[in-house]
Design goal:
seven-stranded antiparallel sheet, single chain, TIM Barrel, 12 helices, 2 domains, binds iron/sulfur cluster
């Protein structure tokens, strides 16, 4: 089974080109996709037409790789819980605009269906688009704004996160379930090339969210998180959201919040999504009851990490130390691993990942799709060619074979799953 290449007429209409089989991309190279790696585009996925770009495919007659001359290239945005195995393959024209901060996975057409090379890496259904009920979200927003009329954070989560950005975490909060977001930091000590909450004025692309503009107090945080932990199924509260900078810059407020929260309830799990830059602060938070950490990274190789994060006053070893600290305190440590086929599955990255897992006692890898224009990323990173690579599936299999207790997923697990990862937690 080989799907056909898709192309668009530039007006939002997408067609299949039955003279070309679809291929994928690793780094800068277009490559065939093994037929076992194609799955139907999961519910919640969407398709993008890529202006100024021509798709690449394999000629069904000659078997040669060539460009699709019929229109613009097309890529897929695959929904959370799935990891893309190949980027979309295309040739970029000289005047093509930089693409916005979404993931661009290969896609094709077969038997009247869209296909993508991807795997479902997470069975948790917290971000299934079919699970969101806009009416219930609206009801929840109305109820929480009445319940907490002076709470700036609840107002931000309602008006910006749930109703404007349609953030799945915020919508779950207003539906009274699962993971509740606690954005808290207007500032950051990194300058990620693909930051989703702040893009420099000189860049042509914009951030997908605006960064928080105020520092919430511990009282504001405690007021709405304690009832969530008390009443929601599989409750988690999480600092470090897409609409803020780095939460560890607010560690004293977070510490005071955790102390106060745990005076009221011992339910649920308290998590921080972070760049991991301040291990000493992480230790202070573990001392008062932080349960889990998720450290984001585009690479586990210091030079590639540093080129992307452009850190202010911290180094790669600091983030490794933050993972070690959580392990020392018996907490759950995850990496939020931005998967970029051709880079993530290079032999050098594989070796560095093995070393990091051994060194930190890592609990989990969250294999996340990298929301960035591939050409723009490789250009900014100064990558002119990408060597041989293992393939994302093989990388996952090799790591799993060597570290069978290391968990794979896409989301921060609730307390119940940290205890028993395979527990049947059907929501
Ligand atoms: S660590 Fe997060 S908030 Fe900070 S620059 Fe990077 S993506 Fe943006």
């Amino acid at each position: 089974m080989s799907p056909y290449v898709l192309y668009s007429d530039g007006k939002g209409n997408i067609f299949e080109d039955t003279s070309l089989y679809a291929v994928g991309r690793y780094g800068w190279d277009a490559v065939p996709v093994h037929e076992s790696e194609w799955i139907e585009l999961p519910d919640g996925g969407s398709l993008y037409e890529l202006p100024g770009r021509q798709g690449i495919g394999i000629d069904v007659e000659s078997g040669e790789m060539r460009l699709c001359e019929k229109g613009w290239a097309v890529a897929a945005f695959i929904p959370p819980a799935h990891t893309g195995l190949y980027l979309a393959a295309y040739e970029t024209g000289p005047d093509a605009p930089t693409l916005p901060l979404f993931c661009y996975t290969a896609t094709g057409w077969h038997n009247d269906k869209f296909y993508v090379p991807a795997v479902r890496i997470e069975r948790d259904i917290r971000q299934e688009c079919s699970g969101f009920d806009a009416g219930k979200v609206q009801e929840g927003v109305k109820h929480m704004l009445e319940a907490y009329p002076h709470n700036r954070l609840v107002k931000h989560l309602a008006e910006n996160c749930a109703l404007t950005y349609h953030c799945p975490a915020a919508r779950n909060y207003f539906m009274g379930r699962w993971e509740c977001p606690v954005p808290s930091s207007p500032a950051c000590n990194a300058n990620c090339i693909g930051c989703i909450s702040f893009q420099p004025a000189e860049e042509t692309i914009v951030s997908t969210q605006d960064r928080l503009t105020f520092k919430p107090t511990a009282a504001e945080i405690v007021e709405y998180t304690v009832p969530h932990l008390e009443t929601a199924p599989y409750p988690i509260i999480s600092w470090g959201q897409g609409c803020e900078g780095e939460p560890l810059l607010m560690w004293e407020t977070i510490r005071d919040s955790i102390i106060e929260i745990r005076k009221h309830t011992d339910k649920g799990s308290i998590n921080i999504n972070t760049n991991g830059s301040r291990p000493a602060a992480v230790e202070e938070l573990m001392k008062v009851g932080l349960n889990s950490i998720r450290v984001s990274m585009n690479s586990v190789q210091p030079d590639i990490y540093t080129k992307y994060y452009q850190p202010n006053n911290y180094v790669f070893d600091d983030i490794v130390e933050s993972l070690r600290v959580v392990n020392r305190y018996g907490g759950w440590s995850s990496i939020n691993y931005f998967v970029f086929p051709g880079m993530t599955d290079s032999v050098e990255e594989y070796e560095a990942l093995r070393a990091l897992i051994k060194d930190t006692g890592l609990s989990m890898i969250q294999w996340r799709n990298f929301n960035i224009d591939p050409d723009w990323y490789l250009g900014k990173m100064g990558v002119t060619e990408t060597g041989d690579c293992l393939g994302v599936v093989q990388l996952m299999e090799l790591i799993h074979a060597e570290f069978p207790n290391l968990k794979y997923g896409y989301f921060n697990p609730p307390a119940e799953r940290m205890k028993n990862f395979d527990v049947d937690f059907a929501h």
